[in-house]
Design goal:
α9 runs antiparallel to α12 and α10 crosses α12. The protein has a three-stranded parallel β-sheet with strand order 1-2-3. Strands 4-5 form a two-stranded parallel sheet. It has 13 helices and five strands. By secondary structure, it is mainly alpha-helical. The chain binds adenosine monophosphate (AMP) and tryptophan. The site of tryptophan has 13 residues, from β1 and α7.
């Protein structure tokens, strides 16, 4: 079976409130990679249900993530866009990998600890096994590169460990080197966008405060207001990177600016060093609107035609399935299933 060398896989959960962190940490990089790689971008609805989702909202949010991929610039004709639950290889491979991975590995996952909180006994079994489903997503396509935000680093290390253990365990039955060890691609100056209300907390879909995040459905006025009200300290911006140390809110806004402008944080400080936030924030709001409003507008247009999005997802699922089905068949053979 031919081994791909430049296959990208990534996913975003359809859990609503798609935000600037999702865009700058992940989706934006999906676009550039299609120039050089064969890309598979998934809407991971099976991951979403590891915590409760209202069924009608889940369907809408699934279309919204697909719309975001397309609006951001992913070409659904040359690349693959689909939703996870349409390709049964993800669930089937998860079972095999559940039996390869060790409980001790999952017990170290910080995202589970954060999401399950104090009441761990009451978290879903799916939430616990979540990283194995993620490993299956990637390995079902024998993907080589995985663009994600910084928070997914630990899950990717686990995916590599699972791949390596599968290859070792079944080395004598055709498993040696079967799965490539997927490389994380954690790119750009905004790999971890922080909350606008608290520079020590990640920007997240589930933060109760809508002011903590800029979403891909915000209007220019919403964006300007959220940036104006973003928490900052009283000092002007420094001229050197050093000066951002211990200033998490300033660091975050500079990182966002850099990422949106496609320049480095150093270059932002060269231009804006010495500026007060009262001057920097309007410049950031203008830049954010310039970059985001074409995407927001296109997403809204796409969301007006759900049948078109559904057709894109169906076509993508067929092409995804054509890649994953033979991989799964080979896995079954390697494991000894007849
Ligand atoms: P999720 O919303 O958890 O499905 O995340 C989708 C993608 O966005 C993943 O690649 C995450 O790593 C990335 N991501 C989520 N939140 C942030 C953030 N605050 N900063 C940067 N990337 C993020
Ligand atoms: N767990 C990822 C997140 O929450 C989403 C995801 C699921 C994913 N499967 C993936 C990302 C496979 C990359 C590759 O952000």
């Amino acid at each position: 079976m031919e081994q791909p060398t430049n296959r990208v896989f990534s996913g975003v959960q359809p859990t609503g409130n798609l935000h600037l962190g999702n865009y700058l940490g992940a989706i934006r990089h999906f676009v550039g990679l299609q120039e050089t790689h064969e890309c598979i971008y998934c809407v991971v609805d099976m991951h979403a249900i590891t915590v409760w989702q209202d069924p009608a909202e889940l369907a809408r949010n699934t279309r919204e993530v697909a719309a975001a991929y397309i609006a951001a610039g992913v070409n659904p004709d040359t690349q693959i866009i689909f939703n996870q639950s349409k390709v049964s290889a993800h669930a089937e491979l998860t079972w095999v990998l559940n039996c390869v991975a060790r409980i001790g590995w999952l017990n170290r996952m910080t995202q589970f600890k954060e999401k399950a909180g104090k009441n761990r006994e009451n978290a879903s079994v799916g939430l616990y096994s979540y990283p194995i489903l993620m490993a299956a997503d990637i390995l079902a396509y024998r993907a080589t590169h995985v663009p994600v935000g910084d928070d997914q680093k630990q899950h990717l290390e686990l995916a590599r460990d699972v791949a390596q253990k599968f290859n070792n365990d079944f080395g004598d039955n055709g498993g040696a080197d079967f799965f490539p060890l997927p490389e994380p691609l954690i790119m750009g100056p905004a790999t971890r966008v922080m909350s606008l209300r608290d520079g020590t907390k990640k920007m997240s879909k589930s933060d109760p405060s809508a002011m903590s995040r800029i979403t891909l459905t915000d209007t220019p006025d919403d964006i300007a207001k959220k940036i104006r009200k973003a928490k900052t300290d009283p000092e002007p911006l420094p001229s050197e990177l050093e000066g951002l140390k211990d200033r998490p809110e300033a660091d975050n806004l500079v990182g966002i600016y850099a990422s949106l402008a496609g320049i480095s944080k150093e270059d932002v400080l060269k231009e804006h060093g010495g500026a007060a936030f009262s001057a920097f924030k309007p410049a950031l709001a203008e830049l954010a609107n310039e970059k985001l409003s074409p995407i927001t507008t296109e997403m809204a247009r796409l969301m007006d035609d759900p049948a078109h999005i559904d057709a894109v997802l169906k076509n993508g699922a067929e092409r995804a399935s054509a890649i994953a089905t033979p991989v799964l068949a080979e896995v079954k053979k390697i494991v000894g299933f007849i």
